[in-house]
Amino acid sequence: MRKIPTLVLFVLIVASITAQNSFEKTALSQAKEMANYSNSHDFKKYVDYLLPFNYGNNSNNKEKLSEMFKRSSESDTATIRVVKTVKSIINKDQYQILILCRERNRDHYIFGISNDKGKNWLFTQPQQTKMNFNALQEMIPTISTSFSPLVDPKFGKRINYIKGEKIAPFKFTDINGKILSSDSLKGKVIVLNFWSMSCGPCIKEIPDLNELVAKMKSKEVVFIAPAVYTSKDDIVKYLLPKHPFSYQIVCIENDDDYNVNSFPTHVIIDQNMNIVYKYDAYSKENTKKMEEILMGLLK
């Protein structure tokens, strides 16, 4: 194998570092421009610097988003100050950067993406320095996992609910003290509803879910409702008297162990512990779809 001369190798390394420093400077400069537009409440220009997922990947929504920021600014005087680059990489042909900023006297991160070799950048809004990296991947599918150790030490260690995969072993204790485990429920269909008392749609769908449970009363189906950000006392004292819930309610001790990023999230598991359905929203159409899937599994 032919060796690269030391001098040539040194020149290549220096050139690479110089190029990286150059695109980092450009990214920082444009991030500061974005922050200045936000701080001066020029939200139409601020939105132009945001990655498309911020406005639902629909350019028609940019005007609505800028108006929303304008309304929020009337009661929120927070400013953004860009500090420094934390990490930058070239992921295939896409340049990516993680920038530290300050907002409300706290450290935040801004992720930036460039698809033209670092000349023009689009960014996220300021994010907490500790976040669920899976949620970030949903927003930016191309984001490099090399950023994950900086923002999410638990990345890759959470329990996932992915259609077509086996359910991870579980053992819950419901609010009445009954133990519900994957081992004891083998051979039955399992329906999970991840929800929270602070989630309006979660509460709104309870009557529909109760109706679904009633329809499946004589079937081999177990309905479990893991509650996040919710205590047993609050459920018993405040929720159930107003909103009786037919699911077996479980209070999750560590919400961060589960890769569930929106509520409600519904998961259906077949008799062989395979995940056959996942849906993260409330709609009557979804409840009807769940009923159809359950009837198909129970034939």
TrEMBL record:
Keyword line: Signal
Name of the molecule in the record: Redoxin domain protein
Gene3D superfamilies: Glutaredoxin
Keyword presence, Cytoplasm: no
InterPro entries: AhpC/TSA (IPR000866), Thioredoxin-like_sf (IPR036249), Thioredoxin_domain (IPR013766), Thioredoxin_ResA/DsbE_sf (IPR050553)
Molecular functions per Gene Ontology: antioxidant activity; oxidoreductase activity
A Pfam cross-reference name: AhpC-TSA
This protein's record includes keyword Signal: yes
SUPFAM superfamilies to which the protein is assigned, alphabetical: Thioredoxin-like
Signal sequence segment: 1-21
Top-level taxon in the UniProt lineage: Bacteria
Domain Thioredoxin: 161-299
